[in-house]
Design brief:
The protein is of the alpha+beta class and 398 residues long. The protein has one domain. The strands form 4 sheets. Strands 7, 8, 9, 10, 11, 12, 15, 16 and 17 form a 9-stranded mixed β-sheet that branches. Strand 5 and strand 6 form a beta hairpin. Helix 1 packs antiparallel against helix 2, helix 3 runs antiparallel to helix 6 and helix 3 crosses helix 8. The protein is globular. About 3% of the residues have low confidence.
Length: 398
């Protein structure tokens, strides 16, 4: 009864033309590393993709979640692509490598990490001959970009009628939400859907602080169906070094949401994220094919969605690119029109990111300097000061 881990680890280690994409040499070096790891039986299968300037390693292995071997392999791969980017003179070489040679797993060191366990053979719900696995990757996006879309899939039958049709989906989900501003450990909130839908919406409406960490089936509580990366780069470094560009892995099909049920909300909900140019603006998110460079005006945020069938030997079948079809063209057209409305706002609210998010960029220094230049006119007198003035015979209003 094999148990596999599907891992997606991705990082920006340098890109052509500023934020465009990793170079062909970087991609080829990463693929050679993956091919070598398969030959050495370190992993059973793997793929190399990119979303904008982020290079992603999708790997299948039997070494357990947070395996130091796998994490160190990914870290070394990113070191190699960083060296290539440096030699080629590419932009921001090693941008997401925020620690010096971390020991063991690399969570919190800069790269985004999502890992999900898949068990074959007889499980608590079926005999599983194959597994449908979906990989979501984002660029120029905030860390909680999946909150709204995924939430609608998990609780809203208007976006996922499987919640009405499937008895297993109707039982709901257990969702873990991470407070990403807490840096002394993992501060996690656990909610049950659909009963706590209002609480879920209340907390996830702030996607720059709270993000979905994991989701479990309530029909089969031992089955985790979603894992997402939740690192905040500015919490690691204390300064702006680029957006967090999360990744997420989801299991699909009976008894979990179907692939089309995951993508429906992305097709019908115009999502706004913090990111865009200099990571300092609010903008719509475009669903784009995998291996797409960021070429839009002002670095429009993008997400990709690819799927694989995983068999009991740990091998991935042909990659399916869910955003490559012609049906996504009109959706992107509408989103670009919405995006132009945001850009018409220029530097004004709501086009520019909130003060909290901007606090990690250079504008914070300007805000601090201007703050010193404010003067107070006609100050409001405290009640105790007014009482003292009255006692002294001063009854003037000021």
């Amino acid at each position: 009864m094999p148990v596999y881990i599907v891992a997606n680890i991705k990082a920006d280690t340098g890109s052509s033309a500023a934020h465009g994409k990793p170079s062909p040499e970087m991609i080829a070096a990463a693929q050679r590393r993956i091919d070598g790891a398969i030959a050495l039986e370190m992993i059973t299968d793997g793929r190399v993709t990119y979303t904008g300037d982020d290079l992603a390693l999708t790997m299948v292995h039997e070494r357990g979640v947070d395996s130091p071997v796998i994490h160190q392999f990914a870290w070394r791969t990113f070191e190699i692509t960083t060296d290539i980017a440096t030699e080629e003179g590419l932009y921001a070489a090693g941008q997401d490598m925020r620690a010096d040679a971390p020991a063991g797993n690399i969570r919190g060191a800069g790269p985004g990490v999502a890992e999900l366990e898949v068990q074959f053979g007889k499980t608590d719900f079926s005999e599983r001959p194959s597994e449908a696995v979906i990989i979501f990757t984002a660029d120029k996006c905030g860390p909680g970009v999946w909150n709204k879309w995924l939430g609608e899939t998990l609780w809203n039958p208007n976006h996922n009628t499987g919640l009405l049709i499937s008895p297993e989906l109707r039982k709901g989900f257990t969702v873990e939400i991470l407070d990403m501003d807490y840096t002394k450990g993992e501060r996690v909130l656990t909610l049950e859907l659909p009963e706590q839908t209002h609480e879920f919406v209340a907390i996830t409406r702030n996607p720059d602080r709270f993000a979905i960490l994991g989701v479990w089936s309530r029909a089969y509580p031992h089955q985790r169906i979603i894992s997402a990366s939740t690192d905040r780069l500015h919490n690691i470094t204390g300064t702006y070094v680029g957006k967090d560009d999360p990744t997420m892995i989801a299991r699909a099909q009976k008894p979990f949401p179907a692939t089309e049920e995951y993508s429906e909300s992305i097709a019908t909900i115009s999502l706004i994220t913090t990111g865009d140019c200099r990571g300092s603006h609010n903008a719509v998110v475009l669903p784009m094919p995998i291996n797409t460079a960021v070429t839009g005006p002002y670095c429009i945020p993008i997400v990709s969605m690819v799927g694989y069938s995983l068999n009991a030997k740990g091998k991935l079948a042909e990659q399916i690119d869910f955003f490559s079809g012609l049906e996504w063209g009109p959706i992107r057209d509408d989103l670009v029109r919405y995006y132009r409305t945001f850009r018409e706002m220029g530097a004004h609210h709501v086009a520019l990111a909130s003060r909290e998010e901007a606090a990690y960029t250079g504008i914070a220094d300007l805000d601090a300097e201007l703050d010193k230049q404010f003067v107070v006119r006609n100050p409001v007198r405290e009640e105790k000061d007014v009482e003292k003035a009255v006692d002294a015979g001063d009854t003037s209003p000021s």
